[in-house]
Every structure is written in C-alpha cells, then in structure tokens.
Amino acid sequence: MEKSTQEQPNKFGNISRKFVVSALFEKSVLKEINFDPIEETDILSNIYIGRVENIVKNIQAAFIEIEKGLKCYYSLEDNENPIFTKKNGKNNLNIGDELLVQVSKEAIKTKAAVVSSNLNFKGKYFILTTEIQKIGYSNKLDKKQKSKLQNLLQDFKMDSFGMIVRTNAQSASKEQLEMEWNHLKTLCSELLEKAPYRTCFSLLYQANPKYLEPLNSSYCNDIDEIITDDENIYRELKEYSNKEQSLIEKLKFYDDKLLPLVKLYSIEKHMDSILKERVWLKSGAYIIIQPTEAFVSIDVNTGKFVGKKRLQETFLKINLEAAEEIAKQIRLRNLSGICVIDFIDLEREEDKKVLMNSFKKYLELDPIPIHLVGMSKLNLVELTRKKIRKSIYEQVSIKCPLCHGNGYLY
Prior knowledge:
Layout: E1 8-10, E2 13-15, E3 19-26, E4 29-37, E5 47-56, E6 61-67, E7 70-75, E8 83-86, E9 98-105, E10 114-116, E11 120-122, E12 126-129, E13 135-137, H1 143-153, E14 162-165, H2 174-194, E15 203-205, E16 226-228, H3 231-240, H4 245-250, E17 251-253, H5 261-264, H6 267-274, E18 278-280, E19 286-291, E20 296-301, H7 311-332, E21 337-342, H8 349-363, E22 370-375, E23 381-385, H9 392-396, E24 407-409
C-alpha cells in the first residue's frame, strides 16, 4: 500500500484518506469489495467499560458513554443481565452505573452506535456468547451436518457460556474444535476477571481489523489464493493465519510497484459501475437501485428488451434475469436491512412461484443471512439482509479512494 498523503484528483473527487481495499473474486468476477480507512478507528465488536448517561423509559433504552463524548444506544429489553463493574442504585440500571458493553452495530447517519451486554468472541468455528447460554447452529448447516457436530460437541464443557456453531465447523476435526473453544473461553474468562479492576472507558477487547474477517468466513476453505501488495498487511495476514497451514500456503505477496493490485484487477472500473443507480442486463432491460433512509428500493424495467414471445412470458424472462442480478448486486454493494423489489407485474400464479423460487436460490449464495419475506398484494417482493458492515455507499461516501489504491484481494 502506498503511503502518499497528497491529494490526487480523479472523477470521483479529491481523495486524501487512505484505505485498505479488499476484494473477493470468483472466476475473475468481482463478488465482494470493502474499503477500510486506515486512519479511522473502528469500534465494531470492541468491548468497553461504559457509563450509563441517560435512561429513556418510554423507549426502553439507555444511552451509555464508552469514550468521552461517544454515547451509544442500549436496549433495556434485549439486555436483561448487565455485567456491572460499578453499581450505584438498587434498580436494574441506574444513571452512573458502569458495565461491560460490546459495540454490536456501527453508527449509521443520525443513529448512534448500538452496544450490548451479551459479549461475543468470534473464532473460525464458534462464537462464544455470555448472555445466551445455549448451543445454536448456523442456518447454513443442514440436518446431517448438525447431527455430526452435535456428536462431536457433546463432551465439550460450556462453563456458563453460550455457543454458536459456525458453518466452518463442519470441516474441522474434534481437536481443532476443542482447541478453539478452550481458547475463546480463556479469552472471555480473563476479560471478566480483570474488568472490575479497570477504570471507566477502558477498552478491554479490541476486535481484529475488518479486512481480516474473510479468513474466518464460511467460504474461506474454498479460496485458492490470498494476494496482497502491502508488506505490513502481508505480515498481519501471515500472523493471523499462523495456526492454519492451508491458509499460509495460499498467502502470496505481490511485488510490482508500477502496477498495484487495484489497477491489475480494474477495481476503479468496478467501483464506477457499483456506484451507479442503473444496472443494465444482457437482455436490454435494467434495474434501478436506490438506498433510502428507511429501506433499499429496487425497480425492474423492460428498457430496450424486445421479446418475441407473449407478453407475460417476456415479463417472466426479464424478471428471472433481474432476480439473479439483484442477488449479485445486494452482495456486491453490501446492502442490508429492508429491501423492496418492484419486479414487472406477473398475472399467473405459477409464474410468480417460478420467480420466487429462483430468487430464493440466488439469494442463498450470499454468505450473509437473508430472509425472503415474500410477495405482497401489491406484487412487491420484500426481504431483509443482516447488517454486518456498512454498505459501499457509506464506506466510500460516494468517493473512490483508489488514487492511493492498493490493498489485498482474496
């Protein structure tokens, strides 16, 4: 990664901030991309000792300060068992109380960041939880895989912790699973032991940088190679992958100062396309993607498409093509929350079923959980996608950072 701090103009505007650009390609097709500002502090998943600044009973919430001047939203309904380090009154929660909280959602526009008392510690195979003390399984694991894992995990000691079994666990040995589970328990236990002796606003646990998260993802085992052109990131990736020999073997350092990775893989060209509202389909039809404050609106239009068949068959063909592209764009743009899709109206119920079944299959390729709600009476298709990271629009603020560009691709 270049360390230049000079502003260099491009068609997206003057950019002076530096980013780590990470991208996932499958058969030379861009599937995911993210931009992480190097000079900005990321607080997501960090654990702090926070102080209750205000309690708003009519919305069943409190506002907790985790750093001087940084107040976060805390749901009273979702956090029944706070972990206090300093208690002031007899009520369950009082102004001035100090407690352990973890940032569960980033601040979005005018909304404050969200914190929770349910501490989570992520590994490759498990997520340890402190409040929900039971075993849960990834929705991407089928019945056979769950049954196999249940047999492997029956001797594991829970020690008053909860466990979420991740998709990666299906390919791990019992020894690998046990080693990671014991590590997560030790990590959490040590944090809980030292917390009462630390001062308010202390950062007790700092999450790994976001660009390292793909190494714990469900598709990590299918990655052919991990390439970076930055020496510091290469060392970081190597250290992070140290326990996984298979990952070490896939890690490669790209050393060509004249042609950085973002140029080699035409990332700027991809970004130009991603930031546009209109996406053209091969048939000549197009979709319009418009994020709003409340939800993401996606509209399907016939455009230049000229069908030779009957009208309803033409509409079905366009909708099926659009469904595949919409699923790709949701993942690529990292859209989350509520999405409302206005497909071209279909009259026949059997055509609607074909469209919804196909759309569901395309959405299932996304590693992030998506719930396809269904089609409303107005023929609008509704879905929700779990928010893991900010959308591309939020990450780059409609500005492309690639004049400084470099990063890594996986």
